[in-house]
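Final report, Chapter 2: Outcomes

The project's central promise was a pipeline that accepts a single protein chain and returns its three-dimensional structure in a standardized token representation, suitable for archiving and comparison. That pipeline is now operational. To close this chapter, we reproduce one record exactly as it appears in the project archive, with the input sequence first and the structure output second.
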Amino acid sequence: MREHRGWLQTGAYWAMLACIVVVLISVCLPNTMLAWMRDHIAVFNLPMVWIENAESPVNLVHLILFVLLGVSIGLARPRWHARWVLLAIAVLGIGTELLQLGIPGRDPRIADAVVDIVGAAAGLLVVHGFRLLLDRIVGSTAKASDDPGRPT
């Protein structure tokens, strides 16, 4: 029997796949191709300029991408345990950094893999926090409506 998914979960599923594809494509491209994309594709260059101007001590591209990946996984697959998701993210983050060893102009960094894991954990935590808040709101509303002593 197939599980029914709502529009949010379906959209999050596609966002999760898109994030993974973006990670894999961006890692496999040499710097010359990335430079060409920045010169010729404005929609790609504009966010990169914003991120670079932020002058962050961490790699914001990695952080933003993996926070989005964590949020989309949390929404798309709510039953997946966070520890297994983070283990998969760690494998993805470390694997993509190792893959960069063979790509011209790329310099892999362990710090980027750590940022990937922290970003995904933050995304999962945001989804979990919203779920707890929603459960509390829905639970208190249902409790108030079930109270027989409450005047109507």
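Archive annotation: The chain has a mean pLDDT of 87.
This record, like all others produced under the grant, will remain available to the consortium after the project formally closes.
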